[in-house]
Design goal:
Strands 1, 2, 5, 6, 8, 9, 10, 11 and 12 form a nine-stranded mixed β-sheet that branches. A three-stranded antiparallel β-sheet has the order 3-4-7. Helix 5 links the parallel strand 9 and strand 10 (182-186). The relative contact order is 0.13. The chain has one domain: Alpha/Beta hydrolase fold, catalytic domain (Rossmann fold, 3-Layer(aba) Sandwich). It contains seven helices and twelve strands. By secondary structure, it is of the alpha/beta class. Helix 2 crosses helix 3 (116-143) and helix 3 crosses helix 5.
């Protein structure tokens, strides 16, 4: 059995960089994403999804959505529930997003076909704020590890697409308190990331993508893999022939459907499950 808690705000006051922005957080079903989405996040939160019997491992889950939306179920709560069913304390992160209108997903798709440079500029502007939220989430868990029933040296981070970009940014956090012990960028984008030498003491990494990724992000996963491999940090890459982009926990009748099981194998091999 698992329990979904109430969202917890990550900052005591207004998050730095969010001054003057009204909170217009919206949840709706996107037919374009075929998933429930959250948009217009101004107040970053984590929502705990915890097991009855915790094994000491905690993982922050960062959904994707082009920094305009969060695929909150297939890349968020479904992942968190899978983890919690296996004893991991999961925390779904809602990080700050680009301000949008009533249908942020449709707006994103339109921008990507009419003004790609403009939408990339918007993403590059919001990404550092989202990364700050990720660092705050990791620190929040570590600071409350005893109360949460987790070990402060077993705090991980998994993120999808834009959430994978956030994952890579938090992997380079300057303060160890804000840096995860292990990470899993899933069909991540590295746009705007400086893939420098991993910080000393960086933990292992698990990577997943599909070669036929519709956004062309398979190469990003290879770059991430090579960066960690060259540094001598343990890294595992699963690059499926098919699966497209944004598969998350969706079932497509493809080998990529089982990626989460391979993640479970990896967690077990690293004494985290």
């Amino acid at each position: 059995m698992t329990t979904r808690g109430a969202p917890v705000e990550l900052y005591a006051g207004v998050a730095a960089g969010g001054e003057g922005r009204p909170d217009r957080r919206t949840t709706y079903y996107s037919t374009l994403f075929e998933n429930q989405v959250v948009t217009n996040v101004v107040v970053p939160t984590v929502t705990p999804v915890v097991p009855d019997v915790a094994n000491g491992t905690a993982i922050v889950v960062a959904p994707g959505g082009g920094f305009h939306a969060l695929s909150i179920e297939s890349e968020g709560f479904e992942v968190a529930e899978w983890l919690a069913d296996r004893g991991v304390s999961a925390f779904v992160l809602e990080y700050r997003l680009v301000p949008c209108g009533d249908d942020a997903v449709a707006e994103l798709v339109t921008k990507m076909t009419t003004d790609l440079d403009g939408v990339h500029a918007e993403m590059n502007e919001i990404a550092p704020l989202a990364a700050a939220d990720a660092r705050a989430a990791v620190a929040w868990i570590r600071d409350r590890a005893a109360d949460l029933g987790v070990r402060p040296d077993r705090v991980g981070f998994i993120g999808f697409s834009a959430g994978g970009n956030v994952t890579m940014r938090v992997a380079y956090a300057n303060q160890k308190r804000e840096r995860p012990d292990f990470i899993a960028p899933i069909y991540a984008s590295v746009r705007g990331c400086d893939l420098a030498e991993p910080p000393a003491g960086s933990g292992p990494m698990f990577i997943v993508a599909a070669t036929d990724d519709g956004l062309g992000l398979a190469g990003d996963s290879v770059l991430i893999y090579e960066t960690w491999r060259r540094a001598g940090v343990p890294v595992e890459l699963h690059l499926y022939a098919t699966g497209g982009h944004g598969f998350g926990m969706k079932r497509q009748g493809l080998p990529s459907d089982s990626w989460i099981d391979r993640f479970g194998d990896w967690l077990t091999a690293n004494d985290l499950l």
